[in-house]
Amino acid sequence: MKADKILDAKGLACPMPIVKTKKAMNEIESGQVLEIHTTDKGAKNDLTAWAKSGGHELLNHEEEQDVFKFWIKKA
């Protein structure tokens, strides 16, 4: 999946992946896609809820060798 910006949040514990995601979202335009890489197991619930509350669209997520990847389209 193509992303307009990639955020490396690996090794960060909650709430830092969300804090970094919010900052990165402010740097892209509406309709663009942010790809987030994190190792925080709680990120699946956190990022899903955060995207929904902000009106953003969680396009996809997958796990690859203990790294969780998310693609969120900015509202």
UniProtKB/TrEMBL annotation:
Q: Which domain of life is it from?
A: Bacteria
List the PROSITE patterns hit by this protein, alphabetically: UPF0033 (PS01148)
Query: Start and end of every UPF0033 domain?
Result: 7-31
Q: CDD domains, from UniProt?
A: SirA_YedF_YeeD
Q: Which InterPro entries match?
A: TusA-like (IPR001455), TusA-like_sf (IPR036868)
What protein family does this chain belong to?
Belongs to the sulfur carrier protein TusA family.
Instruction: Write the protein's name.
Output: Sulfurtransferase TusA family protein
